[in-house]
## 1
Amino acid sequence: MTKKVSLIALAVVLSAAILVLGCGKSPQAQGRAAQQSGQSVMYVGSANSNVYHYPTCASAQRINPSNLVTFSSAADAQAKGYRPCKVCRPPY
Ligand SMILES: [Zn+2]
């Protein structure tokens, strides 16, 4: 009986630990997944301007999501008539 009880206790402790670890790990895992899936979006621009930015640029973050245009590369942005931002300086 004691063995059974301690096994159940162990199982409870383990599942609690897995839950805690899982919760602790998931934001990082999600961040990595987002970075990996975000590799196709290298630069962003606004439909109302002809400037492209790094997605991290303050100007890029002010773009209205409904006007957001994404580019897979600098060449892609230039092919669509965009020029690099003078603040975040993406490659030309
Ligand atoms: Zn910028």
## 2
Amino acid sequence: MKALRMERRPTRFVAAYLASTFGSGRGAGVGPLRLGDGPSPRDLGPGWTPVTPLLAGICGSDLATVDGRASRSFESIVSFPFIPGHEIVALAERAGIDAHGQAFEAGTRIAIQPVLGCAARGLALCRFCQAGEVGRCGNLAHGHLRPGLQTGYCADTGGGWSDGPLMAHQSQIFVVPEVLTDDEAVMVEPMACALHAALRCPIDVTDTVAVIGAGTLGLGVIGALNFLSDAYGLARPHKIIVGAKYSHQQRSAKDLGATDVVEPKQLDRAVRAAVHAGSMGFSGHLGELSGGANVTFDCVGSADSIAQALRITAPGGRIVLVGMPGKISVDLAPLWRREIELIGAYAYGVEQLGDVSIPTFDLAFEFVVAKGLGNLVSARYPIDRFEEALAHAGQAGSRGATKIVFESSRSTKHRKDDA
Ligand SMILES: [Zn+2]
Ligand SMILES: [Zn+2]
């Protein structure tokens, strides 16, 4: 089976880290990622179905891994060699049962909810898995599978960056509604992250929301805030102010419902004007605002973006960390003095919308269709061209792109009118 495999080779991680200083995604050529033939994953027993990827996305956390920049906190919850790729739309090779307990036929298109929680590991469900909050599961290194927080980080399951098959557990399988294109279906996993993030703290109609970063997650959060008020009657914030660097990002941010779109450097000023705050800076120094956004979504996760979030979030406000941070150095004095809450937003599970509780993936199917988010897929590459693909993903913003995906020859349904 042809696949991209990530091997544990420390010297190659160092080489990747050095290469990536010349641009995100550059670690692909020298790093621990290898294209080649290798064994297919073994059958993992009852509840598991072999599936063949149609499209598999490249996300920021993948680039950090390829470039040797991922947090060392992941070391105990991955197992090598693994096949990356956790944003997956695939075809079931056999009939099986999905996450809702419904039967599906061989050949059915499925989206994979990649978290490898207690159910997939053959364990009694922990309290989080029982509540459907699989993202919070703490058993990611236990059970009959080798460690792996998700499909795409586990040596036993296979991953999306391959010809397939990979193994998907019943608890991970969501049948893709017919109306979705493959491009829409591959956006379901990242858009489930965006929805989950948007729901991590309550929003009021008088709120000013700031969004840092306008890549896949930033655009997803903007769209999610609007979708949740359009479709589920949640409060629409008074303002959504977005810092977006590139013109295509600025256009998409507007289309998805941002009220104010500015260059990232102008975000402090835009928030300040919107809430009529003062700046506590002195000349040549970016200061904290006296007021600020009620909620800031940091969709970057760097030291600079978190520092900016701390400057522009109102005292008593909240910062939702959406982009994956690593080991960084940030002055937390403003967080302490301004009594700001810092909230993590990882993965998905079950969302509570008033009286309705709905798996994030089911909500994401509705979301990607309602907002036409298949349009965020900018380019498709066969896995043979992985170096190009990863370089494109690493420079997506400056190259006018948002989401880059790997495509297999079996993917045909890119547009509504395709077969
Ligand atoms: Zn991802
Ligand atoms: Zn669990």
